[in-house]
Amino acid sequence: MARGKSDKLSNKAGGLSSSPGCQRRRGAVRDKFTPRGAFPHCTYPRNGAINMCGRKMGVVDGSTKRKESEGWNTEGRRKSEDESSERVRARRGYSGDIPHIREPSENWSEDLKQWQSTAVVYQRVCAHPLVTMFWTLLLALILLLVLQAQLYVCLRELRSSTIPVISVNPNETTNSSTSRRIPGAIIIGVRKGGTRALLEMLNLHPDVEVAKAEVHYFNMDENFQKGLDWYRAQMPLTLAGQVTVEKTPGYFTAPVVPARMWSVNPAVKLLLIVRDPAERLVSDYTQVLHNRIQQNKPYQPLEELLLRRGHINPNYKALQRSLYHQHLARWLALFPREQIHIVDGEALIRDPFPELQKAEKFLELPPRIMPDNFYFNTTKGFYCLLSAGHDKCLDESKGRPHAPLSNEAFQKLCRFLRLPNQIFFRMTGQNFDWC
Ligand SMILES: Nc1ncnc2c1ncn2[C@@H]1O[C@H](COP(=O)(O)OS(=O)(=O)O)[C@@H](OP(=O)(O)O)[C@H]1O
């Protein structure tokens, strides 16, 4: 196509005049019968009367007149030379006002008549306004066709390559292009359970794309009111067949979330990564403490929040978030147990690969995550990720030293959590090595 375009353009640059039947081409070789400055590919009569394009050779333009007044004819010969040949022509019985007349042949008058009649035909054909219009229209048509073909090629390239197609339909999947799709799987919690690690590790799989930031669509009213298009816009681009995954640990404990999530996609696969709820509580407090210190806000020691008059304070928010059985009950009221995959957060810290194998199976993905995607980083004290020669460790907000809590307070917490944990084990059909 580009070649076609350049061909057309080069024709144009080659100097097409407006009347294609009588065109003047730059750089064409002038034969000895062709006057200087004339149209070389048009046939010129040797007797010089009228050319094949119907132009009378004797027509003298302004510059010719000027040259003549300076004593030069149009071929650069001195006027006096021409005057002598004029005299010769006059002797032979020919007189005319046409310059540059060459010697006629013996039967020149017949030649002349023949050329004249041919010239008249050409003149009619070349100079007729309908013919000019025809050629102009033909050129315009060709140009239009070339442009149309180019536009078609451009549009095809755009569709097939760089520009992503943003789908309007939430469940739209197209085979050839990328779209932003609502998640097929969501890590719903638990907060401080290892949700970031799980998300990044799943992202090692070629058929998984993850939303980098926590979305908080279902648990925050102001986000939920923005609607599904807003939610989808937060998602990464995926190809058909890839799974979109987001993680928002706040989903697990927010009472409104299960019903909202069900209404959007009842088939969504749910991943819940859990960790010893007592450890989780301490980690939760440590995170809040860190944020308050950063914001220069006042804070209380953990023990003051956890205990009231020496007993566990059941209203402490971080403790409520550790009562997994209560939150899970709301999810199981809507989603079947098989639709919720429970990941062991402590096992993920110890050895991520087996947990990732189970998650792949649950997401119905082919096994693509390998043991050598992980290596233990002794400085961090955690496994880091390896993929395509790049390594990645989670940032310093993960694995901070926990805030202090007395042994006595911790034991009280463990005792308080024993029953809730047992209920959770029964609900899930899984046991964990918690306090
Ligand atoms: N590989 C690896 N690297 C670093 N950290 C890891 C890893 N695997 C799990 N973890 C544990 O993840 C805990 C943080 O959990 P979350 O990511 O869910 O926290 S958050 O709720 O998103 O804030 C974090 O908890 P803390 O140690 O209490 O900070 C980590 O112990």
TrEMBL record:
Record carries keyword Disulfide bond: yes
- Show the GO MF annotations: [heparan sulfate]-glucosamine 3-sulfotransferase activity
Mark out the compositionally biased spans (Basic and acidic residues): 1-10, 63-88
The residues that cross the membrane are 133-155
Q: List the disulfide bonds.
A: 384-393
Ranges for domain Sulfotransferase: 185-415
Q: What InterPro entries does the entry give?
A: NST/OST (IPR037359), P-loop_NTPase (IPR027417), Sulfotransferase_dom (IPR000863)
| Residues that, per the record, bind 3'-phosphoadenylyl sulfate | 192-196, 275, 283, 383, 398-402
Cross-referenced PANTHER family: HEPARAN SULFATE SULFOTRANSFERASE (PTHR10605), SULFOTRANSFERASE (PTHR10605:SF73)
| Name assigned to this protein | Sulfotransferase
Source organism (scientific name): Hemibagrus wyckioides
